[in-house]
Amino acid sequence: MSLLEVRDVSRRFGGVLVVDRFSFDLQPGEALGIVGPNGAGKTTLLNLIAGDLAVETGAITFEGNDITRLAAHKRCRLGIGRTSQIPRPFERMTVFENVLVGATYGRSDSHNADEAAVESLRRIGMLPLANQQAGSLTLLQRKRLELGRALATGPRLLLLDEIAGGLTEAEVLELVDLIVEIRSAGVAVVWIEHIVHALLRVVDRMIAINFGVKVIEGEPQAVMESDAVRAVYLGQDVATT
Length: 241
Description:
Structural class: alpha/beta
Radius of gyration: 18 Å
Low-confidence stretches: none
CATH superfamily of the largest domain: P-loop containing nucleotide triphosphate hydrolases
Number of helices: 9
Number of domains: 2
């Protein structure tokens, strides 16, 4: 059974169809990369999976359960965690308190929230900063904290939205190593990213999207070298597959 099934999902804003009958499956422990130009519908697709936006048509199932109309916080407690493009920690709270929020309110079982928060901080390498105020963190540390809060919810699926954006090359590689470690623990990943070489180090499969439509899906290197993807990034019309 697939971990996640997205079937013919659509969403429009006003008269603009942003995601158009989009479908894919994700297996347990698999990492999927999603690429496309700005405005292609990538973040909207992630928001539909996370429950931050309502699906207009189509269906989403997680571990065999229909979650199409389920609220975002309930999806989180089922095992879907996510990060945002721009980290927004509770700046006046400590690093530990930020992660504790995820462990307390994002898990189906919050009895051991303190332990879950500590373990999450250990996994992201921020345990020494547990008592530091989140507002004083660097961008890389804020990105790590985003991951930490998501991991504290105990996800089986982690949705990453351009988490490498704005980082230096060395910081990107550091973040990639962390995501590889998270994957090795059996967490499935759907990762939207413009920094393609980071994706290629992590994902098993890749989908290119443009104007809300799947352009091509397949082995990551083959997708990035395809004529269809090159045409999308050059602004030409392409035939969808």
